[in-house]
Amino acid sequence: MAPHRPEQAPAPLDPASPAMGELLRRSWRAGTLMLPSAPAPSPRTPSAPTAAQSGSLQVALAGVGERFAAWRVIPPGGAALIVRIPHVAPDELHQDLAHEIAALSLLPSGVGPDPVAVHDDPATSPLGRPFVVTTAIPGEVAAPTAWSAAHLRAHAAHLARLHAVSAPGRGPVSTGPDPWSAIAPGPQHLLPEVEGELRAAQVAHGAAIAEHRLAPLLEAALEVVAATEAQFAQLDGFVLCHGDLCATNILWDGADPAGGPPAVQYIDFEWAQGDDPARDLAILGGSVHGGPWYVPLTDEQVSAFVDAYVRARGELGEVPDSVADTASLRDRMRAWTAYERSAMLVHVASRAATSAAHRRVLPALRGTLAVTLGVDV
Question: For the region Disordered, what residue ranges are annotated (predicted)?
Answer without folding.
Answer: 1-52
